[in-house]
Design brief:
The chain is an alpha+beta fold and 173 residues long. 35% of the residues lie in helices and 21% in strands. α7 crosses α8.
Length: 173
């Protein structure tokens, strides 16, 4: 089970909202969702968690590229939203659509397409055990790189505590 929330910075602090990720398929979709929640192009922090197995933080500042951190790449890559984040961090594109477009599917195919003998994507992610991404994305907001890397258990609660919006996050949980 996933939990996702958006924390939008305002002049008076933070506003929190829970968010559904049903229509989010890419990091761009998530960044667009965060920008919609932004107040006057201020910072928005998207927090994603899967049953204390891993958590992800995506920071969006106006129209800048989103900054991403995932607590455990190997575990996160096994879930749909975690894979979306780890694929982006590892520079992988969605090759599945490209592969389908390149096939000539006229209903007369014999057998399966040839196997791809390139490096397995799962092997690439497995090589990245532990945290992946921008460990400094919350440094100016009160969560140092060292603190972010040490988070365990209720990581999202600890991040919200450092940002000064624990009650807001708990209200949307």
């Amino acid at each position: 089970m996933y939990f996702a929330a958006l924390l939008a910075r305002t002049e008076d602090g933070w506003e929190a909202s829970d968010t559904e990720l049903d229509n989010v398929e890419t990091l761009t979709d998530l960044a667009d969702l965060a920008r919609e929640a932004a107040i006057d192009d201020n910072t928005v922090v998207a927090l994603i968690e899967q049953e204390d197995a891993w958590f992800g933080v995506v920071r969006v500042d106006g129209e800048e590229d989103p900054r991403v951190f995932v607590s455990n790449a190997a575990i996160a890559s096994r879930s749909s939203y975690g894979a979306m984040l780890t694929d982006e961090l590892l520079g992988r594109e969605d090759d599945a659509a490209d592969e389908l477009d390149s096939l000539d599917l006229d209903g007369t195919e014999d057998g399966e397409p040839e196997a791809n003998n390139d490096v397995d994507d799962d092997d690439e992610v497995a090589a990245v055990r532990g945290p992946l991404g921008d460990t400094g994305l919350l440094s100016d907001l009160g969560v140092s790189e060292k603190e972010l890397l040490a988070l365990d258990g209720d990581a999202l609660g600890e991040i919200a505590d450092a940002l000064g919006c624990t009650d807001l996050l708990e209200a949307v949980r």
